[in-house]
# Entry
Amino acid sequence: MNKSSFDKYKSSSTIAVFLLIICIIWLSANSFIFETVREKVVAFSISVILIAVCIFLVSKQVSSRAKQLHHLISDTLFQSTGVAVTYINLSGTIVEMNQTAYKMLGYDNADELIGSSVIDLAESGSVEDFKSAMSKLNSGEAVTATLTVMHRSSFPLSFEICFEPVTSKGKLVGAILVAHDLSDHKRNLERIKYMAYYDDLTGIPNRALFHIRLDEELIRANEEQSLLGVVYIDLDNFKLVNATFGREYADLALLSIAERLNRFTSSSDFVARMEGDEFAVILVGHQTIESIIEKVESLHKQLIEPYDLKGEQLHIEASMGVAINYDHEDDSYAMFKKADMALLKVKETEGEYRLIYSQEWIHSSYDRLNLQHEIHRAIKNKEFVLHYQPQYDLENGKMIGMEALIRWNHPTRGLLYPYYFIPIAEQSNLIVEIGEWVIREACMQNKEWLDAGYPIVPVSVNLSIRQFIKNEMAQQIKTILEETGLSAQYLDIEITESMSIDIVEINEKLTEISKLGVGISVDDFGTGYSSFHYLKSFPISRLKIDRSFVMDILKEKNNEEIVSAIIAMAHKLDLQVIAEGVETVEQLELLRSIQCDEIQGYLKSPPVPKEQFVSLFQTTSKK
# Structure
């Protein structure tokens, strides 16, 4: 309101008040001035009318003053540079907006936005929230919401927007939108978060975020029954770089190392700088220990390549400690402690650049005794279970067999894999009792499936060399087959190449088993001491090519040639060949091209409990 308007208002109000005072004085004095009743009544009526007129004039001026104040407030808000204000109609069309509002969105004047829908300015993820706010607004409800609006330059801005209804003569006509920019606040929060979880020098995650992510990945790996590797990396003698070239060169080297680690890991892996010259990597989504080792070796190869630092060639060596999630009870700190222990072992071991943590390192006499006790209890309480992995014919794709693989359903640690307990079981001879249980359970289950009308395929069981030494295996297998009612042709025994060292003894035992009608396969072929001369002597019918050859068959030409030679020689000896560890279609097609007979691996199915294996039977029967 300008000064002239205010003076005008002041002048008219003063006159109205003056007249009102005169009327009141006149009303009070008319009883003395007029004598007759009629005169007094007329004078009183005139006074009342005049008073009413004065009151009306004063109230009108007050109402005008209130309206002018409202306009003053409205003008002030729309002219404010500190508050973004926009007026929209009920359909959401922008009718007016102040300079702060359109400047905040990157526009030069309000005309560029007036007439457009406020919802058109919303970021795609906030469109529904805008519509919800408009719906509540149309019912007369004031709304406050945090919404994302697109800047003219196409980047998102976060606002807290108050939708205040506007009414005219009791009717809802639109809304005033008052917006508060939250982007700066969010940026400050992001900066605080960055400082808490990221390394200032390299920009990669730090120790705190590493442990958070590792806990998450451990949970996911346990759910997916996959393997996870933690690689703890220490740069050997890195202090010499600092001492020789100075801090600037040392920092450049650390930046280059962080960049290489990120470049040569997958998007699902995780790289962090722990402190100083120490880094850590989480390798996720692996199915075999061999694939983790291969990745570790690849990372080491990349790290020791020369670094060009401002024209200076720098060679850096690195030591790596590796921990794998064998124990499902391990949290991030337990896993990292194991990787740290493996790294210390590397430093103590001459000629090694990486070691995988072994449970035996902390198995004191008490630990071993305690684990043996737990295995005894597991046998008694029937805590062991079998998982089954199918085997397929490469020519027709049909299931031709399955392998029974033991797991320990530990009451507190969850499902444990064989590498956790089998070494202790073998050292304590508990493997003999466990091995007998595996054969019996596999035969019972296969008989149950055969009786239920599922496809007829043999089940394969691994035998330990201690079972051969301690037991009359042929008699034990015969007894189990008789007790379970399973025909011998539906059982296959897998032996490792190491058993073939004592040729005469092993050959006698295998011959006795073969006479029962049980199939015999050589497992992990290519990693032990066998020769084709021994294979010709043994009563075996199938070779299993070790997964280490299959894993690298596409990368190393030598592996392809070795596998091809094994298959050719095996076929000349009338032996079937099965490749284990097949994980990709490319591996499968290559094996098919070199005449491999059968495959087994995660490409078709991981080992699964008996309840899930039934569905694999049903899938096969439809082919």
